[in-house]
Amino acid sequence: MAGASAPITLEIDDREIRDGLRALQDKLGDLRPFYQDLGEALLNSTRRRFETQTAPHGSPWAALSPGYKQRKKKHKDLVLTLDGYLRGTLDYRATKDELRVGTPLIYGAAHQFGRPEIHLPARPFLGLSDEDRQDALDILAEWLQAE
């Protein structure tokens, strides 16, 4: 992801997925095609979080502060949405060795992790939900069964 960015890297800490990735890498060598399939699924899932206003684990994002909500000129009831740039710049990069899902916008990290010094609560939009984990396992199974 080109442009100014703060790295937002999320490790997959799931033994079943890691074991499946090892088996698939032994089979294919280059995991880019698998990562492209998974990247599309995770990109769609991450975009849906802007509709549901929820973190990967299902908890609602922190509400807007009353002062900001009053000053906000559009999308007053939507968190992380003013002009839609954050959601609109979500992308993924698949290589033979890894998949990264994120945004090139530097303020993406501030929203993902929060910034206590400016009273900005964390509103995670990146990460794996239980549904994402199952999708990853399903996509892995399809690739492992393919000839």
Walk me through the topology.
Blueprint: H1 15-28, H2 32-52, H3 66-71, H4 85-88, E1 91-94, E2 99-102, H5 107-113, H6 130-145
Antiparallel strand pairs: 1-2
Helix pairs in contact: 1-6, 2-6
3D structure, described in words:
This protein is mainly α. Helix content is 46%, strand content 5%. It has a two-stranded antiparallel ribbon. Strand 1 (91-94) and strand 2 (99-102) form a beta hairpin. Helix 1 (15-28) packs parallel to helix 6 and helix 2 (32-52) packs antiparallel against helix 6 (130-145). It starts with 14 loop residues before the first helix and ends with a helix.
Strand order of the largest sheet: 1-2
Return the string of H and E elements: HHHHEEHH
Into how many domains do the coordinates divide? Answer: 1
Mean pLDDT: 88
Low-confidence stretches: 2-10
Number of distinct beta strands? 2
Helix content: 40-55%
Biggest beta-sheet profile: 2 strands, antiparallel
Intertermini distance: 32 Å
Structural category: mainly alpha
Please give the radius of gyration in angstroms.
17 Å
